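Q: What would this chain look like folded?
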Amino acid sequence: MSQDIRNLEPKQLWNKFADLNAVPRPSKKEERVIQFMKEFGENLGLETIVDEVGNVIIRKPATSGMEDRKPIVMQSHLDMVHQKNNDTVFDFDTQGIEMYIEGDWVKAKGTTLGADNGLGVATIMAILESDTIAHPALEALFTIDEETGMTGAMGLKGGLLKGEILLNLDTEEDDEIGVGCAGGVDVTATRTYNEEDTPETKIGYSITVKGLQGGHSGMQIHEGLGNANKIMNRLLFDGFENFGLRISEIDGGSLRNAIPRESNAIVAIDAIHEAAFELELKQLAAIIKTEFKTMEPDLEIVVSKTDTPEKIMDLGVQEGITRALYAACNGVYRMSPDIKDLVETSNNIARVILKDGSIKIGCLTRSSVESSKLDLANTLRATFELTGCEVAFSGQYPGWAPNMDSDILKVMVPIYERLNNGEKPHVAACHAGLECGILGQNYPDMDMISFGPNIKGAHSPDERAQISSTQKYWEFVLEILKHIPKA
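A: My prediction, written as structure tokens:
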């Protein structure tokens, strides 16, 4: 199917995307893609730098007649989110993404596609390689580890880049021009607990929540998608309240920036409650599925007998942690009072691991307002500390404050309208975390903007890139490059 992708228009872009997707590039394991990009720049005879954290910078002089324009930076991140369906056999560390075409969409076989942010990377590669595309002096900035910490952007030193305008190609709606984004902080609650021997009167059950869509924990947090960790906790809470259910282990969610799609738990109940427990959980599962039938039509809740676990968690800790998970905010915390329909502050309960006497709960809190971000983080901290957890804040990154007086914005809006029969672009801030806010700390005078093609289902195996939108976006890119303001 790779050849089918390569035949799509614009071929320059799709061929580079196919090349890139053949290289494994998990966050924090970008050694191969860094080397791939380094060799790409060097093979073109262009100045190529790999900085001390692993970001790759490739410089290309202005094309003839464009020497008097402001120098620009085109920026995308090299890493991709790794998610796969439970029944998909795939090794992200060794395999390239397997792509196919379905109608107007490019998809991957049971895994994330890597269009986030691979289409941006491929765009820049195509421009670097071309000898016909007009552009000013260009620095291509390929950052690492955007998805799990933004350490590439954080580690980029000031003074290294010479560009005056930065084009970030990491937006996922083709009618949107991004001028701001949310910052974030990881909120992690941990504690230990005593394990007890499971009484002989108890029997074991496995509870599985699966079939949820998952998705981007920033861009899609307002859509009402199911969170497997919250649904699982609801089931466990009910089982304890009605039948004295005891928890042995929980493994729910995966990445901090992905809405959890699956959760698995091993529990024990008194054998005398077997029939009533199964009936109650069946009825509750039907209620939950009805609640989510519009957004999550493939939701499955499976309750089945299994071997009785040898150990269960301390009763007092179980009561506290299930109540804390019930109380912890998940989803939208506050909408922006200043920008219509923009989520200001949210939280994703991304990961719940409970096993062998140890609890770890990982959340990603986002906000475009630093004080509101801290307010929600402290709300979560207080919730989990009340049940004896230690709570740590880490991985903080700033938001990107909108600049509605941006010179490049004034260039891009009329170009968009001209190319799209007068249709106006949606100039907006987004609730995702973009690298612009971080980069702006060391480059405060750089004029920044973000845009991209339509990508749906990012951070999930349903990720897909729209072919017609990519064509529209490519034409937009080429026109922007022609009209960069004079220095």
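The mean pLDDT is 96.
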